[in-house]
Amino acid sequence: MPPSPAPQVTKELILQRTDCKQLADVKKLDLSNLGLENIDGNLFSQMPNLQDLNLSKNKLAAFPEDLGLGKLQVLDVSENNLRSFLSLAQFQELEQVNIHDNPYTAADREQLTFLLPKIKSVDGDTIQDNHRQYLKRVFGTSLEEKVELLWETQYKSLFKKSQSAGVQRLLQDQFIQRAKQKIQAGPASMAQLRDWRIETIASKLVAEQDLKIARGEASMSSKRSHEESSTNGVSSEAEAPSKKPRNVTFNDKVVNAAEKSSETVTSRDGRVKVDLLPKTLGRTLAKKVVPKPASKKPSPTLSKDSTADYEPSHILQCHSLKNNRDDMKTMVWKCVFEPNPDKTEESTSIVATCGGESVCLLDCRTGKVVQKFSQPKEDFFCVVWMTIPLDDKKEKMTNILVVGGKKGKFYLIHPQQNIWYAEHEAHRRDMCSMVVHPDQPTWLYTGSYDKTIRLWDISPPKLPNYECRIKKLAEWSPPSIPLHMLLFPGRNLLLAACRSGCFGFKLNHKEENWKKTYTTEFTFPKVEKCTEDGQEVETEFMDNMTLISPDVIASKLVGHGCIYLWNLPGTLKRSAKIKVQGPQTLKVQPVAHLEWSETFIDYIYFKMWPGYDVLVCGDDVGNTWMYDVSKFLTRKLPEDTPVPPAQKLFWPDCTWNGTRLSKESDKDEVPTVVSPSSSMSETKLPSVNDIAISSTGDFIVGVTDCNLVFMWRKNKTVE
pLDDT band for position 252 (50/70/90)? Predict the structure, then answer.
């Protein structure tokens, strides 16, 4: 069944709970334990006299800005999913706040002292005057003087009117990073609070300098600066530090390169960053480039010996929240190899991974993180590569990385220039799937928890300011959350794997009889009594599917214990015989069942080995399953017996950061993650959320639910 919609607060509910006749009369409001995921700012702004608000025991991940509650004195947001309390600064009259049981740090708690001038207690603990004075002395006036001294002596003179916004943003980042490295304040336990204060102070200094430049107080020729700014197409809003959706690391040599030119182009290792987010998007559409189809190679011979062909090479912990080495909880959701921009059927040794607040690019040859992009308060769920013309020039192709997450936005990254150059609000809720059109490289399909699939046309970035145009072309409405999509332009078909099953939509939205809703439902064999610990599980929950040939699809349903291979043309032929109005229901007859784990854990993805007939999939206990599916590409009759994997790679025996990852015994092949810390004292089974294999087959990469990325390298001694 489709998931029930998230609860919503209405005017009627508020008046009923408060016995008030109008919202303006409400002074105390209890909205606890309602399962709320968001707050309607327009509704709350109609309660200017509200003084006491209880939002505890909900599912809030963010707090809206500018609610207009200027008289609010008591706030309870305990037992939610809030990771930051910066938005509480809007409540300047707040005296009491409860924030316990949220995923925040001690530094986040101390921020309230600076954000709220009248705060008296946090979680019932009174803020002592001596502690308040200490924090304001060390992280207030004293720290401001140190940051201002560094600004005046080394950085203020570097900001000039003739610079582009990208260069100024580059210098600002350099200034903030240098200040964090050079300036000491408070004990090491408060390093996060110090860094936050440094960034706040530094950003204010830069903003003030920008304002002076805009007014002509720092230069003799303000007109020229204004004209260049208009030519670049970058607004002051895009330049403001608070509006920048990125936090990209770089080296100390950036300043010199940036001063010389805002158009500096270097390799990935150069780490030169032209950091722009244009407010006004470009005007030209991308020219459509049709990539050449990948040529199929003979299926390799796979050994059933799990150690014969591959050996573990690296395990990385690169998605930790705030670089916390003890973070074994961040989920890493997706991984995908970078395509060769000149031969898209081939991949490089670089793999992109996403999870938590960060996106990482890893080099499988060295096992090192070559680039890392972070977005505070995000949680990235999906990532995809787009190979498009650079600046509308077909002869020069480049790779753009697209990532999406819980904010409902997708972000555009150009790794070659180390730049995170645009973001776009695509959905109202979390983005969970993305796919690029096979024939139109600038067309991106996105799926979301708001139960919509949307098509976007993303133009190539126009250099040097990285202006781009993002246009919505179409929208579809599946009956439940779309977790994966496949496109069949020749059949005018969009196939979506959803929580309530598999559904087909008309792909060509320009047809006169095009419909937003699904036209076909594909049903699979029923599994009797799918239960886990006595609880019923959705037997129609399809969390992944992939194309193993132009006609054959691999699909996985939660709780079925196998991966289905089925023939799409054969299934569609039966629809011609069915004459019904409205959506059709077609029963899928699998040509094969691939043996897999009996787990009920969802969101475990698989992929095809590019150019080969090999399917790779992780499982709930850290293993990698490899199937030879070559004999099923043309099969029409079903296979009688389940097909075992041709090869299986078991989780390696190792220790990570004091945490032992191992098998409990030779008989029980379940690898465990045992942490010495109290928060991770219980046995944890690492689940391989996603897996990818390079086009050459030299590298296999998997991402897990315990903040680890593992790599297997092909043993070159094996023929």
Answer: very low
Max CA pair span of the chain: 83
57 and 180 inside one domain? no
Q: What residue numbers bound the domain in which 67 lies? A: 11-127
3-state secondary structure of 465: coil
Backbone dihedral angles phi then psi of residue 83, each to the nearest 5 degrees = -105, -10
- What is d(CA 80, CA 54) in angstroms, rounded to the nearest whole number? 12
- Alpha-carbon distances, residue 469 vs 238, 317, 415, 444 (angstroms): 16, 35, 19, 13
369 class by beta-carbon count within 10 Å (0-12 exposed, 13-18 middle, 19+ buried):
middle
- Residue 235 structure tokens: 């607004």
φ, ψ of residue 254 in degrees (nearest 5): -65, -35
Question: Do residues 72 and 200 share a domain?
Answer: no
Helix/strand/coil (H, E, C) string of 565-580?
A: EEEHHHHHHHHHHCCC
Q: Dihedral of CA 675/679/682/684: which sign? A: negative
Please give the DSSP secondary-structure letter assigned to residue 507: S
Same-domain pairing of 95 and 150: no
- Mark whether 51 and 147 lie in a shared domain: no
CA 372: distance to chain centroid? 13
> Is residue 230 in some structural domain?
no
Looking at the structure, do residues 338 and 404 belong to the same domain, yes or no? yes
Q: Are 443 and 455 contacting, i.e. CB atoms less than 8 angstroms apart?
A: yes
Answer whether residue 570 is part of any domain.
yes
Task: Assess whether the previous peptide bond of 652 is cis (omega < 30° from 0).
Answer: no
- Confidence tier at 239 by pLDDT (50, 70, 90): very low
Q: Are residue 162 and residue 121 in the same domain, yes or no?
A: no
Identify any residues that bridge with 402 across adjacent strands, giving them in sequence order. 384, 412
Q: pTM for this structure?
A: 0.59
On average, the pLDDT of the chain sits at: 76
Domain-terminating residue out of 104, 127, 150? 127
Q: Encode pLDDT of 600-632 as tens digits.
A: 888 899 999 877 889 999 999 899 999 998 888
Tell me the per-residue pLDDT of 626-650, one tens digit each, with 9 for 90 and over: 999 888 877 666 777 889 999 899 8
